[in-house]
Amino acid sequence: MHIRRGTAIAAACAALLAGVSACGSTEGSSESGVAAGPVQLYGTDGNMISSFGDEFDQPGTLRGMKGTTPMTPLTDDFKDRLKGVSPDLADYVYSGETYDAVLMSAFAAELAGSTKPTAIAEQLIGIPTGGTPCDTAKTCLALAKAGKDLAYRGVSMRSGGFTDAGEPSVASYATLHFDGQDQLDEGKMEFVGAGDETQTSTKSVQPGTRGTTPASTGAPLKIGGLLPKTGDLKGAYPPMAAGAALAIKEVNAAGGVLGEDVVFVEGDDGTSAEVAKATVESHVKDGVHVILGAGASGISTAVLPQVKAAGLVLFSPCNTASSLTGADDGGLYFRTAPSDVMQGAALGDVILRDGPKRIAIVARNDEYGSGLEENLRAALDRSGVSGDNLLALTYDQPKDEAGNVDFAAGAEEIKSFKPDALVLIGFAESADVIKALMSAGVEFKH
């Protein structure tokens, strides 16, 4: 476990809560400003999913926990279509981003007139901007088949577009809340925007020479899954799987790509570099052109050299680590999820609205956890939360033989710190942190 404290001296309350609704004493804090009493719990996209509640035997453990995740308001029509391919779907996190990634890959191949990955990559940057607006597989494919420039207005990318680095220039974040049954309460969901539209790439699509036979186009287009069917992030798999299945269904119903149905090859990243690398190797042997994933940013970082060497496109719907913006990808890595530079600011805003005085952050020690923790700390520091009012801890993988994170020492450190706000940046193993804190006597607001 690593411990880091803020480096600047905490600002006065007026600076701390600039732009926040109140600047009085925080409920549950002592007159000296040292927090006491129940702690408000916050999470992020890795654990703010309804399936996270399955990690607890006692119903209501998560009641009152709130947090952020990249998400735009989803229409009832889109949710109904997802339910059509996955009737038991309980979450929608990253479903839109996955749907958009598959569709844009299909449009890019059609515009390129080829399934050659480098040709697909050349088209992808311009897909969301610059041409005739379209928002369905049918209408966008019709434009692509006619060799016309298009501007896909998708589920997750409704404005802005890709930056030159192949990631969203603007994004929408949802503020989520757990209810008394440890499920997300859609009735309390709010949305905030983030990003800078001026960073949108000015590159446009450049339709390629169109072949007339599978031999000349490389059809069918093959997309290989590299999503977390197992491992710490498996709770996020169902909505992403539904998004991919719906996109494949609608593309093929619209006539497929280059005259052939798109083929989806299943694959698991296991939330494990070893599992993911084996899956990529299998996809290379199967002749996959685009790999959809990985789930965790650290896993994408681990497999990116392998994917680049094979000359394939790696397109993740849920990577958020800011370190991937400058990755050595040869122009082959894309993501529909925004960088955590944006989420750090959005989450910081959500936390500061509640007016905490002492904030503890606990993050998994990988590219996602450490990266988002740094971006959150930067956002809090800009608002005056630092120094003795901020404690940041990270925990290492792998887990112990029982498959659990041992956070007993960290729990005691947090208990002694007496925060009134606690942020958990992690995946399913965040449950081990919560259980350790409860065992240490830390009480959460409900």
Q: What does the main sheet amount to?
A: 8 strands, mixed
Poorly predicted runs: 5-35
Order of helices and strands: EHEEHHHEHEEEHEHEHEHEEHEHEHEH
Distinct helical segment count: 13
Strand % is: 15-25%
Indicate the structural class: alpha/beta
Number of strands: 15
Helix content: 25-40%
Q: Judging from the principal axes of the Cα atoms, what is the shape?
A: elongated
- Quote the distance from N terminus to C terminus: 28 Å
Radius of gyration: 22 Å
Mean pLDDT, nearest integer? 90
Describe the structure.
The two termini are 28 Å apart. The strands form three sheets. An eight-stranded mixed beta sheet has the order 1-14-13-15-2-3-6-7, with helices on both faces. Strands 9-8-10-11-12 form a five-stranded parallel beta sheet, with helices on both faces. A two-stranded parallel ribbon has the order 4-5. The chain is elongated. It contains 13 helices and 15 strands. It is of the alpha/beta class and 446 residues long. Helix 12 crosses helix 13. The model is unreliable at 5-35 (pLDDT under 50). 56% of the residues are buried. The protein has helices at 13-16, 76-85, 95-112, 117-124, 137-145, 214-217, 237-253, 273-285, 297-310, 340-353, 367-382, 408-417, 430-439, and strands at 2-5, 40-43, 66-70, 132-134, 150-152, 170-177, 190-195, 222-226, 263-265, 290-293, 313-316, 333-335, 359-364, 390-395, 421-425. The chain is 33% helix and 15% strand.
